[in-house]
Amino acid sequence: MSTSLVVRASLLAASFVCMSARAEWRCDCATIVDACSATVTVEGGGVSIESDHRQCSRVDYLIDGLPFVALVVDGHETQSWLARSENPRVLMQSCQVCRDNAAANTPVLSPRTPTTEPEPAPAREPEPELSRLIAVDPKYPPSAASSGTEGFVEISFTVTPLGRVENAIVTAAEPPGVFEQAALAAISRWRYSAEEGRAAATLKHRFDFKAKDAAVAPAAPSRANVETAIDSLIAHSSAYDEDADTELDAGEPQSAVRNQCIREQVSYDFGEMVEANLMNTCGEPVMVYSCAEGMGRYQRRWVCQSSESSQNILVRPGDRLVGNVAMIEVPEGVRTFRYVENLFVVRARNTEYWWLACDVDDSECRGSGRQWARSMDGKAASVDPQLWTGQSVARSY
């Protein structure tokens, strides 16, 4: 190679590796603080390098396979270029932001590693819509009404595939100890659309108690008036049909005796369905297991429920235990039950329902009731409920 060509090649290399004194002073590329993006363009006798950072940038690139490095200050740098081809191939390799000595407070950061966009989460299946068929407002407690007390109760509850409300618990209440029982009694009467195979859903609801609602709340009956009304009902009511006994007889099975304690206080006709309000006319607390003909998908099929699933114990209206709780052992373990003065049975219009009442401490009867309700649930309405238990069950229309 001639001397002139060697000198020319040396000058060519020097034009790309030599940096301006200003750039070398400002750029401390031993410390990389960020990544950047750059473009390299060959323009006639020179190369133009643009960086998206005004701070010092080190740009590594190739032209026709030859490696070059540029220090870019204030976002732009130019270098001379002795063209070797008409259409040189330019390939960017990297762009890194260096520590800038001219910036007194330049942070020292770790090099930024490339990140990949996270894959979008798979679309969730839409939750089934629950159509609320019955919504009952809570009764304003008389004591709160007389004092003008206002407040709220927030409740979490489970809606079963049959549309019943279970496992209702108070999650917040203000003021505490005033409105909780009224809210729980109301939510237990709510009913939702039934759908076979649907998973149980957990919902929340807030009841607000305002003084304007208390103004129309009926006065609470006295205990004496309640007991008089119940005694009159017992004295004048006859058996529901030939399957229900008309008198309490000490010689009868205990379940038959307790069945006679259950009376239908009032029923609410909602057109497609009827909601019966059951009460206990005896002095002993009982658990009630019931089966009624369902609606919708459960038309002409038995739909059963129990005090154990709703965690309620039925006592005489006005009983001092109303609103209190008790710890009762069930197959799932020890659970908290609440004493209530009403239970509700929902049935299709012009159909019958059956029930079995058991003393709270009668584990044999309760076990039979539990098994009976589970066995009957979902069976055709043509199946005779009495044939599925050795206990005596009662019937109403």
Descriptive account of the structure:
This protein is an alpha+beta fold. The chain folds into three domains: 3-100, Immunoglobulin-like (Sandwich); 140-220, TonB (TolA/TonB C-terminal domain), CATH 3.30.2420; 223-397, no CATH class. Helices cover 19% and strands 37% of the residues. The protein has helices spanning 3-17, 21-26, 142-147, 180-187, 211-214, 223-236, 254-259, 307-310, 363-376; strands spanning 27-35, 38-43, 46-51, 57-63, 66-72, 76-80, 90-100, 132-134, 151-159, 165-174, 191-192, 201-209, 262-269, 273-280, 286-293, 302-306, 312-314, 325-330, 333-340, 343-348, 353-359, 394-396. The strands form seven sheets. The protein has a four-stranded antiparallel beta sheet with strand order 1-7-4-5. Strands 16-15-21-22 form a four-stranded antiparallel beta sheet. It is elongated. The protein starts with a helix and ends with a strand. Residues 1-19, 106-112 and 217-252 have low confidence and may be disordered.
State mean pLDDT (0 to 100 scale).
Answer: 76
- Strand content of the residues, in percent? 35-45%
- Our measurement of the CA-to-CA distance between the termini, rounded to an integer number of angstroms, reads 116 Å
Q: What is the global morphology?
A: elongated
Number of domains: 3
Total of DSSP H or I helical runs spanning 4+ residues: 9
Fraction in helix: 10-25%
How would you sum up the major sheet?
Answer: 4 strands, antiparallel
Largest sheet, order of strands side by side? 1-7-4-5
Radius of gyration: 41 Å
Derived from helix and strand composition plus strand pairing, the structural class reads alpha+beta
Based on DSSP secondary structure assignment, what is the total number of beta strands?
Answer: 22
Low-confidence stretches: 1-19, 106-112, 217-252
